[in-house]
Write a structure and sequence with these properties.
By secondary structure, the protein is α/β, with parallel strands linked by helices. 46% of the residues lie in helices and 17% in strands. A hairpin with a 5-residue loop joins strand 7 and strand 8. The chain starts with a helix and ends with a helix.
Length: 198
């Protein structure tokens, strides 16, 4: 009787020792899968995303630029327009800014075929935005949105957000989060190809 109980005790002790390598393997696989998912995800939710505006005419926008010039989005028909919502206190906006400078320079090199870039101020002080551009470059028009109406009309949830509008004034792309010059150029070119094929 005592010998049988001793055998059962030994079996009980050895069973967890045999399971330990399998448990360690399962944990390692789960950790590897988690790392793979996180490594493949886009930072800060940056992605092409849906919008109630896609495939529809861009909202009416009449405002002024930071230097007091009138701005009417409907007068940009005939051109590819990239609208970027910006706030000078927004960290991703600040990180994205050099990429927008590269994008603007690249598009300018295409002459009349290049996309026009506009920054729309989102809930920010005009003086702060003016200082930001003076200190960090960027010579494209910056559009004021004093009461936040433009951002609301576009459905901007969190800056930065970028929209691409085709020459007919139709919204084709909404990009939520930080974007780089290469991705933005590719998005414009993809839409241009689709537009010309239709």
């Amino acid at each position: 009787m005592l010998a049988a109980e001793a055998d059962q005790g030994i079996a009980a002790v050895s069973r967890p020792k045999r399971l330990a390598p399998y448990i360690a393997l399962v944990v390692a696989v789960v950790m590897a899968l988690l790392f793979w998912v996180l490594a493949g995800s886009k930072p800060g939710g940056t992605e092409r995303t849906t919008s109630h505006l896609l495939g529809k005419a861009a909202p009416t926008v009449r405002s002024t630029t930071l230097d007091g010039q009138p701005f009417d989005l409907s007068r940009r028909k005939g051109s590819w327009v990239v609208i970027n919502f910006f706030d000078s206190t927004c960290i991703p906006c600040r990180a994205e800014h050099p990429e927008l400078i590269k994008f603007a320079e690249q598009q300018r090199s295409f002459g009349a075929e290049g996309a026009e870039l506009y920054t729309f101020i989102n809930r920010d002080n005009q003086a702060a935005v003016r200082r930001w551009f003076a200190d960090n470059g960027g010579d494209w028009p910056v559009i004021t949105d004093d009461d936040g109406h433009i951002g609301v009309t576009f459905g901007v949830a969190k800056v930065p957000e970028t929209f691409i509008v085709d020459p007919d004034g139709v919204v084709r792309v909404r990009w939520a989060g930080q974007v780089d010059a290469i991705t933005l150029s590719q998005l414009v070119q993809q839409q241009r190809d689709l537009y010309e094929a239709s």
